[in-house]
DNA sequence: TAAGTTGTTCAGCACGGGTTCAGGGGGATC
DNA sequence: GATCCCCCTGAACCCGTGCTGAACAACTTA
């Protein structure tokens, strides 16, 4: 975990830095707004502690610029003045948390834990398989970046195959995961869907294993079976 | 945006509820820990305001149980006592923010905005989506800079879609986040709102995914990945 | 009270897409 | 190589989903 501390009081800055290092962070520090802004702009921090009253560039301005430039690390704001209008301005500039001086180090650490915890919860929801990418949350399919239009049942089926790629999935297993209740056994719906999918994403991406089922594979890097 | 307020003081509870409703949230409230825990356990809230001193079940316990059960909505903790050890306990139980009574309503709202923003992975108060910008604070919508007039329900819906843009949002998810408690299942209100929104912001900005739901997209720069 | 907003309901329509069917191809096994 | 069975494919059917216009109800504002 990399942390940046932007605080103009050298004593407090050093004290914070040491506390964070003890807590396991790799810490950089800056003593004014311009330095702080530059560092946050060039290094990928996991969390930033930012004082509002800074020389050269105001803390709110620093934060606003970062956000405009697309930096989205969590930022915790510090200020000596307990004016709630400033807090509101800080939050609306894109701050994630706020602490009024003086504060207990334990509280700062606890808040930072909360910040990094939540920031780490962002998981990408796309499954990759040799140029084929499946956005499970957006229900979209791309093949080498180009969008492919699939219907909801086709998507469910492809998504299930992708979750278990390189494994053979039986027809009944597919049916059970696509349909809620049971379903007419002697029907060739699954085959029809496989056919339609193959037409859309390429014939060689779904292998059929006679008598067993289907398997989603990466067509170029064919594994030695 | 659905919010839950768990606060045993009936006056404060009502006051908070009204303030949040004015700010555009659909609010449920609970007056003790057990009720609060149950509601948070069964309904998909976007943010929760939780008092620590509660009858029947302590606030920290409520929060710990939610986290154990996998509820990951952002939680803002309230307490009358300004003891930082309690704050630390609250954070480590999984709280995302903390506010000491008494507080300014504006500060609470700013913190809640920051929480919901962060939960959705955004860091600014306005959400952009290909020429469409949504001011979550002022409840305004602009398209290429020109203001678009939307009603409050339309705004809630668009706002929720924008918080989760590129994701497919089911009709029930929309209903659950726009209306407080349950709601007539077989009603086509959502479709009507989608239709009206499309008429205002452009047909191609809200895609319908048959059988799954709706998705807010940038109509020109179709994302690649 | 009248006029204007805003939210909800209803009915009709269009069409997408899931399902079915019939027929043909091609492994597998002997 | 013959036979069987599994699988593929194209097309047609038809039901359900979603869209739309309009009317109605609830509520605000003049």
From TrEMBL, chains A, B:
Pfam families: Response_reg (PF00072), Trans_reg_C (PF00486). GO terms for cellular component: cytosol; protein-DNA complex. The modification 4-aspartylphosphate is found at residue 51. InterPro entries: CheY-like_superfamily (IPR011006), OmpR/PhoB-type_DNA-bd (IPR001867), Sig_transdc_resp-reg_C-effctor (IPR016032), Sig_transdc_resp-reg_receiver (IPR001789), WalR-like (IPR039420), WH-like_DNA-bd_sf (IPR036388). One of its GO terms (molecular function) is phosphorelay response regulator activity. It comes from the Bacteria. Residues 124-218 bind DNA. Residues 124-218 form the OmpR/PhoB-type domain. Residues 2-116 form the Response regulatory domain. SUPFAM superfamilies: C-terminal effector domain of the bipartite response regulators (SSF46894), CheY-like (SSF52172). One of its GO terms (biological process) is regulation of DNA-templated transcription. Keywords: DNA-binding, Phosphoprotein, Transcription, Transcription regulation, Two-component regulatory system. PANTHER family: REGULATOR OF RPOS (PTHR48111), RESPONSE REGULATOR PROTEIN CARR (PTHR48111:SF37). This is Winged helix family two component transcriptional regulator. It comes from Maricaulis maris. The lineage of its organism: Bacteria, Pseudomonadati, Pseudomonadota, Alphaproteobacteria, Maricaulales.
């Amino acid at each position: 975990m990399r942390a940046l501390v932007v605080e103009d009081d050298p004593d407090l800055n050093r004290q914070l830095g040491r506390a964070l290092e003890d807590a396991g962070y790799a810490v950089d520090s800056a003593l004014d707004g311009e330095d702080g802004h530059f560092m946050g702009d060039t290094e990928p921090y996991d969390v930033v502690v930012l004082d509002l009253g800074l020389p050269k560039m105001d803390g709110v301005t620093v934060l606003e610029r970062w956000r405009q430039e697309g930096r989205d690390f969590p930022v915790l704001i510090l200020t000596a003045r307990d004016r709630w209008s400033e807090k509101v301005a800080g939050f609306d500039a894109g701050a994630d948390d706020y602490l009024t001086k003086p504060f207990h180090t334990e509280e700062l650490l606890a808040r930072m834990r909360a910040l990094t915890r939540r920031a780490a919860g962002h998981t990408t929801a796309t499954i990759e398989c040799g140029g084929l990418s499946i956005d499970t949350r957006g229900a979209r399919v791309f093949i080498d970046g180009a969008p492919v239009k699939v219907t909801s049942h086709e998507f469910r089926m492809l998504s299930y195959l992708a979750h278990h790629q390189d494994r053979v999935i039986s027809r009944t297993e597919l049916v059970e995961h696509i349909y809620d209740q049971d379903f007419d056994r002697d029907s060739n719906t699954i085959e029809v869907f496989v056919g339609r999918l193959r037409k859309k994403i390429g014939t060689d991406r779904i292998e059929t294993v006679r008598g067993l089922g289907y398997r989603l594979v990466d067509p170029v890097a064919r594994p030695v079976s």
